[in-house]
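Deliverable D2.4 — example input (structure tokens):
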């Protein structure tokens, strides 16, 4: 086989593969919107611990932040400026007001902490903590996005986690 024929065959294969990929992706249905409400991007500047006061009715979903927290459930409030770093790494923050009934707090903790209450759901990038400033009983936050809930809803919480985890500037970071 001559070099011209070989080069022609390779070119046809490359162009055909590329054309097929373009047509296949064009016919794919668009991804449905992720759960939650999009929030303004306030940047991702790293600053020293304790230098940024937050405390609005919704946890911040981006902005100046400091060192990340361990992926776990906490019994005490955690600083917003630390949680933002976890969000930047693609994590999910589940915050709840301290007046949320104890049985619902236990369900949230069991859903997002080992040993997980749902054998088909084992989130590895979640921070769960009380947050007195919350305007809603439960707020799930991810990078530039949040969802408010008035009560524990396992299905909605799992969907929010699965559709938003990793959707951040450093989503693959641990």
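Example output (designed residues):
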């Amino acid at each position: 086989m001559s070099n011209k024929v070989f080069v022609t065959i390779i070119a046809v294969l490359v162009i055909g593969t590329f054309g097929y990929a373009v047509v296949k992706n064009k016919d794919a249905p668009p991804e449905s919107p992720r759960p939650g409400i999009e929030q303004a991007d306030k940047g991702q500047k790293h600053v020293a611990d304790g230098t940024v006061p937050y405390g609005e009715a919704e946890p911040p979903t981006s902005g100046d932040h400091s060192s990340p927290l361990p992926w776990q459930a906490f019994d005490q409030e955690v600083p917003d400026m630390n949680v933002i770093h976890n969000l930047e790494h693609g994590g999910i923050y589940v915050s709840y007001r301290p007046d949320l009934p104890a049985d619902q707090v236990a369900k949230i903790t069991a859903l997002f902490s080992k040993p997980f209450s749902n054998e088909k759901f084992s989130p590895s990038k979640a921070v769960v903590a009380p947050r007195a400033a919350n305007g809603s009983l439960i707020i799930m936050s991810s990078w530039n996005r949040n969802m408010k809930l008035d009560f524990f809803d396992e299905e909605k919480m799992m969907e929010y986690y699965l559709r938003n985890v990793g959707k951040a500037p450093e989503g693959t970071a641990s």
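The chain has a mean pLDDT of 89.
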